[in-house]
Amino acid sequence: MNVLLTGSTGYIGRRLKYSLLNSDKKINLRLLVTDIRQVDEDTAAKVEIIEGNTFNPDALKESLRGIDTAYYLIHSMRSKDGDFADLDRVSAQNFIEECVRAGVKRVIYLGGLGKKNSISRHLASRQETGEILSSYPDKVETIWFRAAIIIGAGGASYEIVKNLVQKLPVMLAPSWVRTNTQPAAVDDVIQYLTLALKTEFSGSTIIDIGGERLTFLDMLKKAAEFYSLKRFIIPIPFFSPKISSYWLILLTPVPFRLASALVAGLKVESVVTNQNAKKYFPGIKQLSYTESLKRASAEEEDEIISHWSDGSSAWFHSGKKTEESGNATHTASYKKDISDLSRMKVWESVISIGGDRGWLSMNYLWQVRGIIDKFSGGPGINRGRRNSEDLRIGDSIDFWTVIDLIYEKRLLLAAQMNLPGKAWLEFILNETDLIISAHFIPRGLYGRFYWYILFPFHIIIFKGMLRRIIKDSLINEG
Ligand SMILES: NC(=O)c1ccc[n+]([C@@H]2O[C@H](COP(=O)([O-])OP(=O)(O)OC[C@H]3O[C@@H](n4cnc5c(N)ncnc54)[C@H](OP(=O)(O)O)[C@@H]3O)[C@@H](O)[C@H]2O)c1
């Protein structure tokens, strides 16, 4: 069976990719990815890769040629290049029309739960996408899964719940926390999506998935129980969705756009409206909410498979092409001799930067910059990192994203924070030195002003950073 997976660098798609590769050796898996460097070597050896996106007719045609079943796990919410609903509409239309031309038999899509006309813009767009993908029932069978909150390690909803419960002994609860929803465990979602490949359906079908019926308040209370924490939740009737979203970005790693999409989604009931999950997948026994927390927590102890910030490195600016940093008009470089040190230890110290370890020099300044960034709609500094030691291209580290990674040679990070220009942070290990460089392409007068204002701080920060990297690598060397 020839299968196309889109969105394989995203939160759901990355997990589904592993599941498909492990579940059936007879599947020929093809990936459509926007940036080929985001596919790790191991995966690249097992799949066919087409680079492009759904707005690129040639790439779409090539990716769907000879395909039996295509997964559509795409959304444009992170795009800065236009209205996400318009982009989603065009993307789904392009995709289904090419599926029809290519003779694809089945499309499998995962969207959101919630009644039309009462749902948020994001969920309405997910609904519209499902309708577009289902618009050729006589030519393509569309299996449209719908899920509300998905709980799993690295998932945005899980991180919100975990951070709120762990950080706040006393919580103010706005009215939306009392709306009913049905969270699903990410492992269950992946199982449905995987099994849908070989399940017989009676034509295009909508399948609602979700476990026990809970309110967000119940979810917080159960999470507190799970973490053995005593929490007091005080109802506040006048908390607006906007204030709620600001509250969430202050306390949790998610940026404003994601927080407001979640709050808007929780303002209206999002519950299962059909029993097709049981009908078509009687073998799947859905995990309870507490069990899904347990699994997420266990995965965090081990290695997080996918993270909500994995997808689209183009979220905040498009400086993700490695070459672009070479065009920087402003560069500041600092170096230190490492010829007497273990190269491997220096490299390990470099690639474990950020997250809980911090930015090694004047960390409080980075924190302040992160808070300013969050309140101006950026990702902020508390996004952390997927794994404290390991990195892959496309990973986010606080408000940076990894765009180049050459073992023991180069780490290049592109800034995703809101800036008057484009910025990169580069670490190079040459024969004798470790070099840290800040590269910048300013936008307008303010961009230039920004660079020169920060310049004295750069000197202190990067020299301090070099010292700490060297010191930590010496400590690790023993
Ligand atoms: N995550 C949840 O909690 C959740 C809950 C309910 C439903 N869902 C549904 O599950 C689906 C997947 O969500 P997700 O959370 O996995 O999203 P995600 O992490 O944001 O990933 C989106 C993926 O789509 C790719 N993509 C975006 N635009 C594209 C385009 N025009 N052409 C090709 N690829 C494109 C991205 O690639 P790049 O990274 O290369 O840009 C990325 O791999 C969505 O339909 C969502 O509504 C998710």
| CATH homologous superfamily title of the largest domain | NAD(P)-binding Rossmann-like Domain
N-end to C-end Cα span: 53 Å
Oligomer kind: single chain
Number of DSSP-assigned strands = 19
Biggest sheet architecture = 7 strands, parallel
Number of helices: 15
Strand content bin: 15-25%
CATH fold label of the largest domain: Rossmann fold
Compute the CA-based radius of gyration: 23 Å
Return the domain count.
2
Task: Just name the CATH architecture of the largest domain.
Answer: 3-Layer(aba) Sandwich
Ligands (ions, cofactors included): NADP nicotinamide-adenine-dinucleotide phosphate
Mean pLDDT: 90
Strand order of the largest sheet: 3-2-1-4-5-6-11
Structural class: alpha/beta
Low-confidence stretches: 313-318
Question: Helix and strand layout, with pairings?
Answer:
Layout: E1 2-6, H1 11-23, E2 28-33, H2 41-44, E3 48-51, H3 57-64, E4 69-72, H4 84-102, E5 106-112, H5 121-133, E6 141-147, E7 150-151, H6 156-167, E8 170-173, E9 180-181, E10 184-185, H7 186-195, E11 205-209, E12 214-215, H8 216-226, E13 232-235, H9 241-251, H10 256-266, H11 276-280, H12 289-301, E14 330-337, H13 343-351, H14 363-375, E15 396-397, E16 400-406, E17 410-415, E18 421-429, E19 433-442, H15 444-477
Parallel strand pairs: 1-2, 1-4, 2-3, 4-5, 5-6, 6-11, 7-10, 8-13
Antiparallel strand pairs: 9-12, 14-19, 15-16, 16-17, 17-18, 18-19
Helix pairs in contact: 1-7, 3-4, 4-5, 6-8, 8-12, 9-10, 13-15
The chain binds NADP nicotinamide-adenine-dinucleotide phosphate.
NADP nicotinamide-adenine-dinucleotide phosphate (NAP) binds next to α1, β2 and β5.
